[in-house]
Amino acid sequence: MFAQIGGHQLNDSTADRSNRRDTPLRSYNPVTMVGDIALLRAELPTGRRFESDPQTPLRLPDDSKAANGELCYIFGYGSDSYDGPISQTLHYGTVIALDLDSCIGMMGAVVAPPPDSGMFCAIGGDSGGGYVCRAPFSTQFVLRGVISYGVGCGATAHRGVYTDVAYYLRNYPIGSLIGTA
Predict the structure, then answer these.
(1) Residue of 174, 178, 176, 90 lying closest to 127 (CA atoms)
(2) Per the CB 3.0–4.6 Å rule, which of 21, 33, 45, 69 could disulfide with 41?
(3) Threshold 0.85, pTM exceeds
């Protein structure tokens, strides 16, 4: 695992990369996927500044949850077809958050995330990365989630399940170490 800062291609030689120092959540359950989140600590390149100020384009969430019908964006290097190759180019798309009852109705109780699990659903294909939202008339993007699993990889009308970043910042001590928006 590595962090790539800058560049749009995975093989971009001008992008900065940092080796992994990840901390997976001890309570991760591979059957339900609850706890599907890890902290990756990356050394930032010399000369770059990333600060928590109003001009920062991506922020960590406060205690709010993704709202039903909220339009958000996903991005990543994931495959755009089931069992297909990883993309070398960064992709993005739009997704719409679903409330848990709608998610269970569409995915079924066995596939949908359990209540109070720190996960939420959205309509839209996943691309292997983050789930970011922007309030109307704002330049601030908030990292609401990280893709966990989906039904129908890479397909626009299918459902994806995301790990709720605000839930983990609220319920695990790491939030006090890295700050929130």
Answers:
(1) 90
(2) 21
(3) no
